Amino acid sequence: MYVIDRGNSSQTSITIDGKTWNQSPFTIITYGLNVIIKGNVDVNGMFIVNNGNIIFEPEDCNQQQTVKGIFIVNNGSFNSRKSSNQASIVNNSLNDPRCNAGGLYVKGVLIGNGIETLVSQRRASLPTWFYVNGSEKSIQVQRRNQILNGAAVVIEYSPDLWVQLPPGAEEFTSTLDVYKK
């Protein structure tokens, strides 16, 4: 568990690189800092951010960003931004290269403000929506999967979350009266 207080420091953010956190569940609590989550996070993390933002930054434009865990923002919001080496996540300019993907897939929980903003900042992708081979039932399944995989933001309740809880998560969720359903 890591607790980081900005205090009088001039630092305004910390970056969590998904490649770094791949061993065991972890907890990060910050006060007065933005937390930038760069790339995929494959293990359960609990991020508690007070007076700051959680900013999701995908590795590239050709696949969705997948993160696991509990993400809580108090007196801040959820945001997204592009990395320095990629095109804009949202294709709103004909002068920029096209971003083929860019969705965010959260296997866990988002609690806080700015989820609507986060959705508007991510790229949805339905590449073969109008042309799918197969029987009527298989077409319905394929289109359902395309909608889920192509959505700008998907938040999925993950039973995994409760199997390998990050440090302090059980106490925190019981304090908030968040129940496993």
Shape: globular
Q: What pattern of helices and strands is seen along the backbone?
A: EEEEEEEEHHEHH
Fraction in helix: 10-25%
Uncertain stretches of 5 or more adjacent residues: none
**Radius of gyration of CA atoms, rounded to a whole number:** 17 Å
Oligomer: single chain
Structural class: alpha/beta
What this model shows, in words?
It is built from four helices and nine strands, in the order ββββββββααβαα. The model has no long low-confidence stretch (mean pLDDT 77). The protein has helices at residues 115-120, 136-150, 160-163, 169-175, and strands spanning 2-5, 13-17, 26-31, 34-38, 41-50, 54-57, 65-80, 104-113, 153-156. It has one domain. Strands 1, 2, 3, 4, 5, 6, 7, 8 and 9 form a nine-stranded parallel beta sheet that branches. With 181 residues, the chain is of the alpha/beta class.
Give a short summary of the structure.
This protein is an alpha/beta fold. It has helices spanning 115-120, 136-150, 160-163, 169-175, and strands spanning 2-5, 13-17, 26-31, 34-38, 41-50, 54-57, 65-80, 104-113, 153-156.
